[in-house]
Structures are given as C-alpha cells and as structure tokens.
Amino acid sequence: MAHKFRTLLDLCRRRGFLYQSAEIYGGLRGAYDYGPLGVELKKNILNSWWRRHVYYRDDVVGLDTSILTPHPVLKASGHVDEFTDLLVDCTLTKERFRPDKAPALTTDKNGHIPITAPDKDTALSWKKAIQEQFAPHVKITMEGKRILLHITSVSQPGARGQNGKIVFDMVDPNDTPFELPYHGYVEPNTNSPFLTDSRPFNLMFKTFLDPIDPIDRVIQTTMDHSNDTKPVIREAVDEVLKPSTVYLRPETAQGVFVNFEQVVRTMKTKPPFGIAQVGKSFRNEIRLEHGIFRTPEFEQLELEYFVAPWEAKHYFKYWRKERYNWWLEHACHPENFRQRDHASDEMAHYATGCTDVEYLYPWGWGEVEGVAHRGNYDLTQHIKNTGANFEIVEETQPAFSDAVKESGEGEADLMPTELPARYVPHVVESSCGLNRAMLAYLCDAFHQVEDGKGKPPRNVLKLDPRLAPIKCAIMPLTGKSEFNALTQKVAKSLRRKGLFTVVESQKLKIGKRYYRHDEIGTPWCITVDYQSLEDDTVTIRDRDTGSQERVHWKKVHQVIGDRLME
Ligand code: ATP
Question: How many A from CA of 429 to the centre of ligand 1?
Fold first, then answer.
C-alpha cells in the first residue's frame, strides 16, 4: 500500500501534477505548487462542484469575499477565542530522561523496534502515548513490559535508530521525517515518555494592516513598559496591535455570513437559498501531514444554505445525501468513501448535526468534507456585534415548501405563531476541501496494470473523464508531415469546444504514446493514420477498455462532448 502511494506521488511529481513549493530553495514545509496537470485536475473538480451547486439550480448564487478578515468578524464568530488545537510539548530531552542509561536502539530481524519499560504499567502508558501521537503509522505489540513498535506507513527501511532517536520516514517523501527522540531509559514514575499536558493553540494566521512595521510598535511598547511584568507588557502589546490586526481567513464561510443581507437585497432572494464560495483558507496546523492532505494553505468549496428553522431538519438530510452522491459520482471505488455522523460531543456547541464524508486513504480514513447543521449561530453572532439586519420578515403565515411537505420532515412547532413572522435563518453548511478531494480522486483513480509478461506494471489513472486534466490527445501515426493538416484540424475543432487537447507528435511508437497518456488519465487518444488521409476518419481510443472506434473527424468533438455529459 505504502509502496503504491509512493509510486503515485512520484507520478504526480514526474508528470506535472504537484511540485514542492520553492523547491530550488530547499522547499517550504507543507507548501505545494500545482503543476500544469494538477491545476487542471483541481479546476475540473471545482467546476464540477460549481456546475452542480450553482448552474444546475435556481436557488444558489456565488460569492467571492476577501481573504483578509478583520478581527471583529472572527471574534464574533468565535474563532479568535475557540479556534484552537491542543498543543503538546515533547519533553523527552528534559530531565526525566537519562541518556546516559540509554540502550542502543535497533530494529530486530522482523523490522520491529523493541523498547523496554521499567514495569508493565509504564509500558501500558507508553503504548497509549505512542498510539495517540503516531497512529496509524505505528502498530504496537506488548510483551509484558516490552513494547514492539512496528512502523507501518513508512518508506523503506522504515524507522531507524539514529543518533539516539527513532526516525520515522513518512509515506510522503516530501514530509519531513518525524522523529521520536527516544534516548532510552525513562525515570520510573513518569507516566508518559512523550507528552506534557496539552494547552490550546490558535490556528489562525495573524498579520497587520499597518504602514508602520508592527515589530517597531512592539519594540517601542516593550521599552515603555520595561519595568512591568510579562503579562502587563503582553497586554500592552496586544492593545497597540489590535487596531491593525487582520487574519487570513480560516474558512470561507464567515465572508458569506457577513454579506448575507447584501445578497438577499441585491438578488431579491429568500430562504431556502444558498450562497456558494470557493477560495483559499489558512490554518497554522500544528501537524502537517500526508502531502496535500493537511497544509497551512488550502482551498475550500463551501455552500451555506439558508433555511427557515422549521425546514432545517429536512435540508440537513437533503444536503447530506446530495453531497455524498456528488463524491460517489466521480469515484472508481465508491466503497472507499463513507459518511460518518459526529457524536454530540464532537460537534460545535451550536450545531445540531454534522456528518463527515471520509475517504479511505492509504493511511486510513480521512475527512474530505463536513456537512453541518449550524443553526443560526453565525448570523446571530454578527447581529449581536453589529446590529445587522439578518431577519427575514413574512407578512403572511409561513407554510412548508413542497419538498418539506413531501418528506414529512417539517417541524411545525418551530413556526412563528404571530404575524408578521420573523426569524433568523438557520444554515446547513457543506465544506469540502479541494486539495483533499484531488488527493482522494488521485488515489481512487490510480491503477497498476500487469502485462502478464513479467514487465513492471504500468500506471493508469482511471479518472472520471470530467475530472481528467487533458481530455484528448491527438496523435499523428508517424512524424511525417502528411498528417499535420488533419491533426491540426481535429485539434482546433476540440479546442473550440473548450476541451483541453494536446497534440502528441513525438517520435515514440503510438502504443507508448497511448501509455504515456493512460498514466496521466487522458480518457481519449485520437489517431490520425493513413486511412484518415483517404476517408477523413480518425480513431478514438478509450483509456479504460483500449477499444478503438473510427469516426469522421468532424464528429469527434460531438462524440467526446456526448461522453462527457453521460
Ligand atoms: P480536520 O479534522 O481534518 O482538521 P476539520 O474538521 O478541521 O478537518 P473543517 O473545518 O470541517 O475541517 O473544514 C472543512 C474541510 O476543509 C475539511 O473537510 C477538509 O477537507 C478541508 N481542510 C480543513 N483543514 C485543512 C487543511 N489544513 N489542509 C487541507 N484541507 C483542509
């Protein structure tokens, strides 16, 4: 599994899907650039989402709001105070450890790393700590007070004892190997060799809209308070920086909420209706993992669907299903996607329902999207802090919409009893990670095909043709100029239909050229051969079946267009 994933990552680099950002400067951890094919794949996923949720419907409109978000917006939404992860310090290098007594760290003949604890209880607590921090990369077997670490998702040769540390190689060679600085003997009575108590750590990136360098302000304030205590200085510095503090948004949703009234007014719409937004979000993640799965900078496809409170239950179910179906529609292996309902203690305090869509990545199940019923928390918070007019007012007694009537999921007891009826809409949110979607669909599409003759398997990306970066590759049978005119005519007819088309006239044999395109997921190769020169027909080769059909060159764009609509 790990080997297959490495082969896929290698393909992504080699064929222009994904590059390490600023690679010539040694790269920036967690930052990736999308190459010519990656950018197309990402755009095609985005377009499929936008088509489905905006163009195919009459109740959703789009929006594009600023990434820089002022402090009050994110204070009101709760992000300034609550958007945290728990940070744990590794204390192995501190006084609890006795490097002088450290045993040599080696792997045994089975590739396991044995660690011996002073007693069985300590061994159990170590096991728990290792699992918390390193699962699913490590499998652990206990033998009394001995722990055997078996590193699962690693590049060969797995974990190594090196300079008194265990170095785990990550699945993704772009990830810096993580290190478990195990120096050996841990003093008895130590509960865990790896973890301190946890403390909250805010995930938002802060910056300053200020013509004066904020560092100068900090220096000045610190000098002014040089005789004060650290907390007093901290407060003074916060105070002086506050007016210019802005954040890189941690989600696109808040931009939608603060524009709610403008959209209702300008589009003359009212619930049920949705606002779709696509864009970059930023989180200072404590742990970056699995290549583009978790990065500080990522893209989200978010839909905020506003509904009357008495219809919210219905629309939560509706969007839960709609979104899951969208994921399955593009999948080769639908069984590797699942929905997972959150337990009540996993949800934000204001949410009444949340379901993740998860994909079975090579390292285990991972979230690709969350669908949540957020109540009217966000709109209410912004009303409280600004007095904004986000109330919907109905002069006549509200009734259930046809869809809700049909489903029987309306909640009549939530309807206002007095006229005019006033309510703050509830919101059902679907929030999909575009980069995670790309990684999931790449893993899902990646196949290795054996030729049965003992040669190494060849790679095929069986991407849904709608997602494939290149739709058609046109191939003159040989490099002779006699094929040029017709090749260019076919290419032009396809490009005019908006289909990303390339001409492959390299000297490689036609079969090799087909295989090169199978590897990047091109669904159709069109060959211009000698018969084409006689009767104006060309062949269309299907990536997945290898079958070929002959059609008049003028019909190619129509045939391909129809298949993309299927
Ligand atoms: P996780 O639990 O994996 O950190 P989350 O529950 O915090 O995710 P949400 O806040 O629900 O994520 O964000 C919606 C979607 O945005 C996620 O389902 C995921 O696809 C994507 N996403 C969130 N954080 C990141 C990140 N750091 N890198 C890439 N995608 C992300």
Answer: 13
